[in-house]
From TrEMBL, chains A, B:
Residues 657-680 are annotated as: Disordered. It comes from the Bacteria. Pfam families: RACo_C_ter, RACo_linker, Raco_middle. Residues 5-109 form the 2Fe-2S ferredoxin-type domain. Residues 657-668 have a biased composition (Polar residues). This is ASKHA domain-containing protein. CDD domains: fer2.
Amino acid sequence: MTTDPLVVFTPSGKRGHFPTGTPILTAARQLGVDLDSVCGGRGICSKCQITPGYGEFSKHGVTAKDGALSDWNSVEQRYKDKRGLIDGRRLGCQATVQGDIVIDVPPESQVHRQVVRKAASAREMIMDPAVRPYYVEVAEPDMHTPTGDLERLAQALKDQWGIEEVEAGISVLRRLQPMLRKGKWTATVVLHKGHQDKAHRILGIAPGYFDRPLYGLAIDLGSTTIAAHLTDLRTGEVAASSGIMNPQIRFGEDLMSRVSYSMMNPGGDVEMTTAVRTALNALIGTLKAESGVKPQQIMEAVFVCNPVMHHLLLGIDPVELGQAPFALATSGSLSLHAADIELDTINEAARIFILPCIAGHVGADAAAVALSEAPNEQDELTLVVDVGTNAEILLGNKTQVLACSSPTGPAFEGAQISSGQRAAPGAIERIEIDPVTKEPRFQVIGMGLWSNEPGFEAAIAATGVTGICGSGIIEAVAEMRMAGLLDSKGLIGSPEQTGTPRCILEGRTHSYVIYDGTADGGPLITVTQTDIRAIQLAKSALYAGARLLMDEMGTDTVDRVVLAGAFGAHISPKHAMVLGMIPDVPLDKVTSAGNAAGTGARMALCSVAARTSIEKTVRDITKVETAIEPKFQEHFVNANAIPHATDPFTILRSNTPLPDALFNTQGSDDGGGRRRRRRA
Amino acid sequence: MTTDPLVVFTPSGKRGHFPTGTPILTAARQLGVDLDSVCGGRGICSKCQITPGYGEFSKHGVTAKDGALSDWNSVEQRYKDKRGLIDGRRLGCQATVQGDIVIDVPPESQVHRQVVRKAASAREMIMDPAVRPYYVEVAEPDMHTPTGDLERLAQALKDQWGIEEVEAGISVLRRLQPMLRKGKWTATVVLHKGHQDKAHRILGIAPGYFDRPLYGLAIDLGSTTIAAHLTDLRTGEVAASSGIMNPQIRFGEDLMSRVSYSMMNPGGDVEMTTAVRTALNALIGTLKAESGVKPQQIMEAVFVCNPVMHHLLLGIDPVELGQAPFALATSGSLSLHAADIELDTINEAARIFILPCIAGHVGADAAAVALSEAPNEQDELTLVVDVGTNAEILLGNKTQVLACSSPTGPAFEGAQISSGQRAAPGAIERIEIDPVTKEPRFQVIGMGLWSNEPGFEAAIAATGVTGICGSGIIEAVAEMRMAGLLDSKGLIGSPEQTGTPRCILEGRTHSYVIYDGTADGGPLITVTQTDIRAIQLAKSALYAGARLLMDEMGTDTVDRVVLAGAFGAHISPKHAMVLGMIPDVPLDKVTSAGNAAGTGARMALCSVAARTSIEKTVRDITKVETAIEPKFQEHFVNANAIPHATDPFTILRSNTPLPDALFNTQGSDDGGGRRRRRRA
């Protein structure tokens, strides 16, 4: 029978007997308890803080008496005096076992701490980054056993951290000798080990104990916007987020125009590559200015993007992505150096990780959405649509996941819309039309008031009403449909047919006036027939893609719809459903996942295991190519109607009035459904 | 009982039964016979040529009848018509087994062919390079199984060549898609796999079958000269060799002066790094011009060098190598990219391999000598000295190998000698002094005549006699000793003491006149007392180093001496022995290994196995640091005498007269032995 004291760790519940005098950190390591340490138990880093519990713990069968931990030694006391410790906390590397004790490991002392995401799905993220700092004490050189400084550093990492294999590039080799001497043979080294690497690679070295946090960038490189999150690699917390327009827009609004630009202009791909890399460096500059983080602290960047952006980021001519069979240069994930893509505003040793692409039209951004929303872990059949200039669509559950992309074009983002504009102050973002009076009221971005409420005019004086943003146009079209201003084929009725003078004749078709600011020199904001056609094309492409996946799955219904994408966060589920953008499900089954691609990027940045996981998921996904499926065209034509020509949308109709007037009295279609699809 | 035909391969003797119709290449692969192929059996590359043997082979128990191989098929015939085949040769991939047959694999069809080195030791080299071309047929992209081009190329390499893991950098990714399409889904890829690599890395890709040979550089980067051999990576043959002065000489003649330069001048190390890299690119330019090889064909460079050159090549400040404990930044071998050391005159994807260093003063050049001369494989106790500005010394046999370096300085290379000059036309390289008349005769570089032979004067008219090169000065000093002009302490006698007016008074000491060209406005070439002192210092350092290793080994004698180094090739063993440069062994046991470091570099270039082997050898070598061994100073002082103050040199004295006059009549030493040693 053992007489050694019992140590119980919470919250893990792991327990064991240890000889008197065993440091708590040692006990934790022997039991496999997740207790952090950067300095290797030298009382420097304070990452191993623990909270001892005294008294009766009947649940654990332990009574912890005063004196169950050793008194404060000089190292621990010095740390407390110099840097401070929360009351009740001890340093796990200094406090030793003296009697039975319960030790709580607070979340911030766990290496693999869980980070609860604030997004709706509330999935947890485990910190497991590729880049971590390690403090080491290195043996001094000895003429009698003449090994190099690097070899002695590698031995120290092996002895003190169990790291078997280490490699270093030439820039680290150049700094190694002065750093080790400056730190008097102690140093903090930053190591990187990707999910496929055999060895840890030394990215940096600083003399002594270096406690400035390290950061990574999670970057969602979209056709229209680039969003980046500067993330603390210890905690997973976002220190700063920022976005910037993708300057490639000047070469073409959608992806296919950019591929065409490259085809028509020799060197065009190089221009676009330079443009996006310059923008990335500018964006990183903004993040650094906002957060005060230094370039040297940023050690990794993870990218998600569609295939065309993927190739243009890498400097690969995207020409093959513009024509069948849409071959990617590489579909696997990529591990690169910052210099490979000319990111010169972060640590020069920093690493780049790019998520795998799913197919020639379904990129690393879709892979990131799959990582974030995990349809492969759902019981319910879940449809995930990432709405942007191109829509990424995933459909699946635990049994199978399908993926495709569909060329919605930029209409949903307010582009190609007569009064459309980017989401900015002055833009109409919400709209309601009274079904009786046919009068609209609206809200503009940056203000809580409706346009018919007192004080609205005064409140908008500064910005004016300038246009309609992406979510506004969707609401406008859906409201027009519900108010009987628009028929199921997408035709705007005449003043006579609708009974409102707000339907005005422009050329041979009608427009609906939402706001007339012309008296004060402002704009006349209308929804035109051409706008309706653009929205119809976009939503038909989106719905046809989803329908194609449902065909492949052998189903006519889905259980749940997740709207992802920065824009998806602002779409009203009801209006999206009226438009027939998404399949008919109860409205409470439509949720927004926010920027799911960006979240996926952040997960991959914070976890090597997530990288392994998404590679497997991508391999398992069934890829569906919309461009070669004859049924896509049929689905596209049927989806042109609002909400749909053949699908019943029974659930929607049961609680939403959809007047069934038809305004085309000549009995011919005006051509909206016959326009050729294009690839965004 | 099998009725399948029997195939016997020579020279391996491997044999097996194969079904009628089996291609010879297939049979060879199944038996593990070393038969090359680059195109993978498609009748394109002709690397699998074999010579069928017909008739009675009683040794193998085989009778091969006509028709034992298939008739020429159209592929084989087309190859022969277009490119030609040696009579009796067939393509192993096209000719199939029809009956019992003996197949000879000629050396040039073996992948791992042996290359017999021309050097004295005649060791064999097995071709096993890190860089090899592979021809592949790649599957075309398919929208239904959308993998990237890289992934399909990797699959082809796996299926067609058994290569499990492939990786590619961004520059290859950029070229991949156009190359595969240009070659109609066939390509030749150049792969690199170093001795520690898990994956093959794609260095280059060319459309279709690409048959220009690939080359590597074996570079011996010395303190004074840089020598490079441009080597065919298939055959191991040297296409061109060239040398260049190390331009760092302007920062200091020996290594320690260069380290001092770096210490005294901030940025001095960068200047020296730039200088040596510029010189390397110039040297490579010369090799390409000589051979007609294109930069793109040069895929790897292997370096050997001493530790200071090693650090300066890498851009590491060598300051730590200038003071105890002489710590290297890294002692392990290094695998780098050409850009890491700014080699921009070879393929941009080319790889760099640098051999491991043995210790802070015993570099990768000594490791290369160990690889080339393999003292660890000898039964006899072998002393290998690599004579240059710094001497690398190895002593060992199968049981143990010891290594050290010793600071000989540049005297052996003709520097710091009053009439010394580099080896060039006009330089005296051989000399004899008549022991009776004390008259010299000599030969100059580039001419077979002795100076006392008819026609000499006419023959040297063009160049004149300009000075004495390194091997010349050693012969001169040794001949002076044998002729009684120089006593055992290194003092030149007066005309009275020696009986010759060629001993002339210069200041307070005497010089010996070898050649007086002053009448025609030419030089007066003498050996001065200062010259003798410089040679004494150099040879004492060399001998003391060897003696120290013998002490460590517990022996007073060695069995064999190998003189390595470009200069070692020109030293006369007898004269070296008279000087006491090397321990006393029979003259037929002193051999020259030529540029052993360069040969070691070439072996490492041509064989991945050699790289593994030298890493192990270096780990096993016992390192001896001359700077901290008190006995070194004692050995150094005793070695100052010519040949030696205390070691008897019995074998030498038994066949060589060494007059024992002492010219110092004042009974005091003139200080030669008291001068402080310096580190070269």
